[in-house]
Fold this protein.
Amino acid sequence: MPGNKKQNAGDHKTGLDLGQYLQQVCRLVDRGLDRLLPRATAKPPTIHRAMRYSLYAGGKRMRPALCLAAAEACGGARQDALHAACAVECIHTYSLIHDDLPAMDNDDFRRGKPTNHKVFGEGIAILAGDALLTAAFAILAQAPATARYSTRELVQELAQASGSQKLIAGQVADLEAEGKSIPLAQLKYIHECKTSALLCCAVRLGGMSANCTPAQLQALTDFGYNVGLAFQIIDDILDVTQTSEQLGKTAGKDVAARKATYPAMVGLPKSQAIARQLTDRAFAALRQFKGQAAALEAMATYLLKRDK
Amino acid sequence: MPGNKKQNAGDHKTGLDLGQYLQQVCRLVDRGLDRLLPRATAKPPTIHRAMRYSLYAGGKRMRPALCLAAAEACGGARQDALHAACAVECIHTYSLIHDDLPAMDNDDFRRGKPTNHKVFGEGIAILAGDALLTAAFAILAQAPATARYSTRELVQELAQASGSQKLIAGQVADLEAEGKSIPLAQLKYIHECKTSALLCCAVRLGGMSANCTPAQLQALTDFGYNVGLAFQIIDDILDVTQTSEQLGKTAGKDVAARKATYPAMVGLPKSQAIARQLTDRAFAALRQFKGQAAALEAMATYLLKRDK
C-alpha cells in the first residue's frame, strides 16, 4: 500500500495519479452541478446563491469521486455516473447545511468558511438545504437508465440511503446521544447511518449507472460500507489529533461537546487499528474487480492516510 | 353551481356526496401513508413519531383528494394514483413543518395543535421535514408506471413543483417580502409558487397515474393552477375575516406581520371577485372531461366556499 507522498506522485503499481484523478473528477462534478442546477441568477436569486455557496465551498468531492470510480471499476465511463455523482453531492451538501444549524450542531465554520446560516440567515439556510435535497432527485431522475437498473431503482436507492432510517437517523441518534454515555454499538450505528450509508450509496449508484452485475454490486456494497465506517472513525481521530487550522473547521469540538467518539471510547491506538481493519476489508471487496478498481483502491488508501 | 349545504347533502346533478368522498379519500390516504412510511416504532422512533405527528394532525387531505379525483376524471381508478397522492401529502406536510419554524413564520399552532417544533424541538422538526421530503420520493418511485408516463417523469414532476423555483421559491419570496411593500405581481408570484405549483402537481400526477392524454394533462394543469391561486387568495381572505377559533390557527397573523395579501392590496370584495373568476376558469378547464370530473368540480366549489 503506497504512502501519501508516493500516491501524489503517481501509484506505480497501477499507473494512477490520484491527485490528478481527483482534480479531473472535481472539474467534471463542478461543471455537472453547474449545468444540472438552476443558474445562480434564477428567480429568486437568494436561494440559488445560497445553494451554490455551500456546493462550491471547497468540498473534496469524495462521494462523487467514489461514485465515478465505481462506475469505471464496473467497466463503465465516468460520464455514465455523473448524474448519480452530482445527486449524491447535493444530498451530502444539504445534510451539512442542516447539521450546522444552531438547532443541530451549531457550527459557525465549515471548511474554513462561514456556514450557510451565518451568511444567509437560518431561514434561507433551511430552505437551501431543502432545495438541494429536492434537486438531488430532480438530477438523479435525469440519469440514463441501464439494462439492469431503472430510474425507479436509482431513486429508491438514494431515498433509502438519505432517509429516516439511514442518513437522517444518524443525525437524530447523534443529537440524542449528546452529553450522554452510549454503548459502542450505538456509536457504530450512528457512524453507519451518518457516513457509511451515503458513501455506500455513492459507490452502488456508480456501479448501477454502469450496469454492474449483482456480484459487482455486492462487492461495491461491502467496499462502501467499510470505507464509510473507517472514514468516520478517522474523522473522530482527526478531531482530537489536529488543530482547527489544519482541519479548516473547529477542532476538539467532539471533546468539548462530550460527544461519543471512537477515541473517547476505545482509545486512539485501537481506533486506528479498527480503521485499518475496515480498510483491509474494503480492499478485500475490491478483489472482485480483478485490478480494474485502481481508483477505488487509491481513494480508500487516501481516506485512511488523510490528515484533514 | 350548488351551495355548501346542498353539496354536503349530495350533489344532485352528479350524484356525488362530497363529504362522503372526502371521508373515503382520507381513509385511503391515511392507510396508504401508514403502509408506505416506516412504522412509528422504527429506529430511531423519535423521527418516525415526529413525521407521523404532523402527517396525522388533522390535515384536510385536499391535495391527495385532488390527485385521486384527477385520476378518476381521466378514467383511472383511485388506487392508481395512491402513491402520487401520498407523496404530495408528504411534501405538503414537510413544507408546513419547515414554514412553522422560528426562523421562518414562527407559528406555535397549526390546525389547533402545537406545531412540530413545539412538541419535538427545532432540531427534530427540521429533520422530520427532511425525512418527509425524502420519503415523498421513495414513495413516488414505487408508483406503477403507465404507458405514457415513466417513473422518471413522475419524479421530475414532483421535484420541479417542490423545488427551488416553485414551492421553495414561494417561501423564500414570502420571507423576503415580510414587512415590505411589494407589487401585486410579486404577491401573485408568491401565491403561484407557494400554493398553485403543488396543487397543480397533485392533479397532474393524478392524471399521469391514470395514463391521461396530453389534452387531459393540459386541462388538469389549467384546473390546478387556477384552483391553487384561488385557494391561496381565500386563505388570505379568511385570515382577515375569521377568528383563530374558527380557523384552528392564529388569525390576523398576516395583518400583524404586515404581510402582503390580496385583501390588503386590492380590498376584500375585489379579492373575492378574483377568487371567483379563477374558479370559473378552473371549471372551464373541466369541460374537457365531459361530465366525468364530478369530484374535481365539487372540490373546486368547496374550496371557494370554505370558511376555514
Summary: The two ends of chain B are 20 Å apart (CA to CA). Strands of chain B lie at 109-110, 113-114. Chain B has a mean pLDDT of 91.
